[in-house]
Amino acid sequence: MLDIMPFLLLLLLSLTLSIGLTIVILVIRRPPNSENVDRESEGHGSSACPYERTCAFRRPGCWIAVKSHNLRTVQTALGLHNPKPCSWIEGLTTDEKLFIAPPVKGWILVIGSGLPDPSDDVDACFRFLLELSRKLGQVQFFSINPVLHHHAWVKTDGGRIVRAYAWAGKTLWQQGSLTRAEKELELKCFEYGEPASWNSFSPTEALSVNSDRIPLLAARWSLDPAHIDGSLFETERGISGELSRRY
Question: The dihedral of CA 104, 179, 158, 62: what is its sign?
Answer without folding.
Answer: negative
